[in-house]
Design brief:
Chain B: Keywords: Signal, Transport. The complex is a heterodimer of chains A (292) and B (437). Chain A has 13 helices and two strands, in the order αββαααααααααααα. Chain A is an all-alpha fold and 292 residues long. Chain A has a single domain, classed as MetI-like (MetI-like fold), CATH 1.10.3720. A two-stranded antiparallel ribbon of chain A has the order 1-2. By secondary structure, chain B is α/β, with parallel strands linked by helices. Chain B contains 20 helices and eleven strands. In chain B, α2 runs antiparallel to α15 and α19 packs antiparallel against α20. The chains are: A mainly alpha (292), B alpha/beta (437). At the A-B interface, α12 of A face α3, α19 and α20 of B.
Chain lengths: 292, 437
């Protein structure tokens, strides 16, 4: 085989340039700015700037609001992931058994994915609005006083439902594809051996589905932690009493509304570290240890 | 012939060039909807009234968004000449020496016949430095008042022409209303922070913070956990438990007005500028107006209420022509005709005495429209009722809401909640002081 050798040193760089420039301008440079800002204390207009070392980070770890936000984020991310993955797995299994209507059914289920997070938020905000919403009215008939404006639990439930609903379509598609890739012969063989439907699911289907499940697990956690800003902003704005103030929303609020750039930058550096950890987990453990 | 041609060519060029020849300045604002349309009408009026200057308004979203946009633009050297900033941003703007041009300085250097005494001290006092110099130009100022449902009052056997004057009466009337089934709740309110904390303090001549509520310097700290505020928050919690009071949510209290419109609650305390909205939505009943209630056992109450809303700030780094344009625009804006037109359309307060006099007919024809202006001018403002000025105040307002929610959910008592407001707020004030020194 003949190897082609390009003598021109410049050409490979030139071909790489667009990608490199995009990476630098849109990723590395802003990230560098955030790291720099996290060591500074500055007034809103940028007139007086002082280098404060790790003060902004130390302040974060001593701040009950930040620790609360960490906890809220964990509860939120886990609830959204479990709820949306659980429901979509159920739906996928249901569709997998259908013969004729499966297509129509899956198309309908994909619809919510096309809805923007902010619109989804407004939608649920209307449905659950304590004054004019339909759900509180119905819950009231059943004797439950729904009020996500003053009740922390209700508020968390609202943002979890709205965020999970949005993600169901995505999970559903992957689960359905995963299910259809499992050879029917395996399940049939198990059935012949006398395994019931529940046994078949837990011993055959679920383990074979594990690559999909683990992939979705990471995707859903990342989604819940970073892509749900629109839902939170449109429904609870982090309230009541910071009960739904997840890390990403807090970065926005402290930086953009509160004009506290140093603290906001320190928080985004922490988030960057979190994303790194999640990515490492995905590549190191999930991709290797899961049987395909 | 040639001369004629060239003359017309010059005329043509002049007409083409007129857009460039006049000085155009940008004004970033946060007035959407009908108010935004009215604002553009006012600007059009200014642009048509002369041909030297032109103002270009652009809508930048909510108050915090507009302020953030202007600050970001300033950092990138792309700032507008004029920006509309809400009252809680005052501390941040004021501390930014070098980023702003104080209005009194602008008007003295570039304006014609600027007379600070023409302005109502109760309105502009909020935006002056300790020497009494105007720092920004009030544009839309309002103050909270009480709205009540006359039909419900009548059904409950109360005099529909007599709104409650004291908090004791609010409680008594509410109980009568609920017992007679005229409505299911006594009252609700917008703005826990602005109305039930800041205005409550000013209305009872109680300090909100040290250093004249922050007017005296950056080392001011909050002190709104006094006995009057604690007693009031305690009452609100008790009234909420008894069903007399319904909480309308944080910040502006978005869920409060619907409670009043649907006749669930018989009374609501909200901005005087929501008058037009209240009338438009109260289709099935007649609305009455009253001043904010007070505790009659507090000495000095009622004092005067304080304002909210937004003012126009001038940013630094612009040319003399641009500042002259801004000064001319402010002159136009504070003229009695423009003020009276804007105030009667929007329900905001007139900012000059002349404008208020001009509105006498309007007030006579529209009962209740003057409640706000009467309330802020009830007494000469004291140190406690001039207004407030703290840095990071957007977040502090958020803290007030959060701690109030802790009180509502029963996690804290009134004293504990207000103590937390002071403690957490002071941490932010210390941070702000460190950033700006």
């Amino acid at each position: 085989m003949k190897r082609t050798i390009f003598r021109n040193q410049l050409l490979p760089w030139l071909l790489l340039a667009p990608q490199l420039i995009i990476t630098f301008v849109f990723f590395l440079w802003p990230a560098g700015q955030a790291v720099r800002q996290s060591f500074l204390r500055e007034d809103a207009f940028g007139i007086r700037t002082t280098f404060v070392g790790f003060d902004n980070f130390i302040a974060l770890w001593n701040s009950p609001e930040y620790l609360n936000s960490l906890q809220v984020t964990a509860v939120f991310a886990i609830s959204v992931t479990v709820l949306s993955m659980g429901l979509s797995l159920l739906l996928a299994i249901a569709v997998d058994r259908m013969i004729r209507s499966a297509r129509v059914y899956s198309t309908l289920l994909v619809w919510p994915y096309a809805v923007a997070p902010a619109v989804a938020g407004i939608l649920w905000w209307f449905i659950f609005n304590p004054t004019i919403g339909i759900m509180p009215y119905m819950l009231d008939q059943m004797g439950y006083d729904w009020n996500h404006i003053s009740d922390k639990g209700d508020a968390m439930m609202l943002v979890v439902i709205a965020s999970a609903w949005k993600q169901i379509s995505y999970n559903f598609l992957f689960f359905l594809a995963g299910l259809q890739a499992i050879p029917a012969s395996l399940r049939e063989a198990a059935a012949i051996d006398g395994a019931g439907p529940v046994r078949r699911f837990f011993d055959i289907t679920f383990p074979l589905l594990s690559p999909t499940t683990f992939f979705l697990l990471v995707v859903n956690i990342v989604y819940a932690m970073f892509d749900t800003f629109g839902v939170i902003d449109a429904t609870t704005e982090g309230g009541p009493a910071q009960a739904t103030n997840i890390l990403v929303y807090k970065v926005y609020f402290d930086g953009f509304v509160g004009q506290n750039l140093g603290s906001s930058a320190a928080q985004s550096v922490v988030l960057m570290a979190l994303v790194l950890v999640l990515t490492v987990i995905q590549f190191r453990y999930v991709e290797k240890k899961v049987e395909y | 012939m040639i001369r004629k041609c060239s003359a017309s060519a010059v005329a043509l060029l002049a007409s083409l060039g007129s857009a460039q020849a006049e000085t155009t300045i940008e004004w970033w604002h946060a007035m959407g909807g009908e108010l935004g349309a009215k604002l553009e009408e006012i600007v059009q009026g200014f642009n048509d009234s002369q041909d030297q200057y032109a103002v270009q308004p652009s809508y930048k979203g909510t108050y915090p968004e507009t302020m953030t946009a202007a600050i970001a633009a300033f950092r990138a050297n792309q700032q507008p000449t004029i920006v509309q900033v809400f009252e809680v941003g005052t501390g941040t703007m004021m501390a930014a020496e070098g980023a702003i041009v104080p209005v009194h300085q602008l008007m003295e250097e570039h304006g014609e016949g600027f007379d600070p005494s023409a302005f109502l001290p109760q309105v502009v006092g909020y935006y002056t430095d300790p020497e009494g110099n105007m720092l920004s130009m009030p544009f839309n100022s309002s103050t909270p008042i009480l709205y009540y449902n006359k039909d419900v009052f009548e059904a409950a056997g109360l005099d529909p022409e007599q709104p409650p004057k004291t908090w004791a009466e609010v409680e008594e009337f509410s109980k009568k209303i609920m017992e007679s089934d005229a409505a299911s709740c006594g009252f609700t309110t917008g703005w826990i922070s602005w109305i039930q904390t800041e205005n409550l303090s000013a209305w009872h001549n109680q300090p909100i913070g040290t250093q004249q509520n922050g007017f005296g310097g950056l080392d001011a700290r909050l002190s709104l956990n006094g006995p009057v505020q604690v007693k009031h928050w305690e009452n609100l919690k008790r009234w909420a438990d008894e069903g007399i009071f319904k909480y309308g949510g944080p910040v502006g209290g978005d869920n409060a007005p619907p409670l009043f419109y649907s006749q669930d609650c018989a009374m609501i305390m909200n901005s005087s500028a929501s008058r037009a909205g209240v009338i438009a939505n109260a289709t099935d009943f007649e609305v009455g107006y009253g001043m904010l209630p007070y505790y009659d056992d507090v000495e000095g109450a009622p004092q005067n209420s304080i304002i909210g809303g937004a003012t126009l700030w001038v940013l630094s780094g612009k040319s003399d022509e641009e500042y002259a344009a801004a000064a001319a625009f402010f002159d136009y804006l504070s003229s009695p005709e423009v003020q009276a037109d804007w105030a009667s359309f929007s329900g905001y307060l007139p900012i000059t005495g002349a404008a208020r006099d001009q509105m006498a007919d309007f007030y006579a024809e529209n009962p209740g429209a003057d409640t706000g202006i009467n309330q802020i001018t009830l007494n000469e403002p004291t140190e406690n009722s001039k207004g407030l000025r703290f840095g990071n105040y957007v977040q502090i307002r958020g803290i007030i809401d959060e701690e109030f929610e802790q009180l509502m959910s029963g996690d804290k008592d009134a004293q504990g909640a207000l103590d937390s407001v002071v403690e957490r707020g002071n941490a932010l004030l210390e941070e702000f002081q460190a950033q700006n020194q």
